[in-house]
Amino acid sequence: MLKLKVEGMTCGHCAQTVTKAVEAVPAVERALVDLKAGEVTIEGSADERAVRQAIEDAGYDVRNAA
Fold first, then answer.
1. Residue 38 φ/ψ region, left for φ over 0, alpha for ψ in the -120 to 50 degree band, beta for the rest
2. Strand, helix or coil at 1?
3. Which domain of life does the UniProt lineage start with (predicted)?
4. What pLDDT is attached to residue 66?
């Protein structure tokens, strides 16, 4: 499991966008976005760099969750 902090999510549409972007990455089984915490939890064996790139390509900044 991978947990990342996503900066710039402000609404439900943002959460949906991040979810779709992450779930499109190969080997992602499920993406759970916590809008209030500004985090996404990724289940599966996806490459972290690919997940980060997908989120950045969707227009958001990514960093490691605390």
1. left
2. coil
3. Bacteria
4. 58
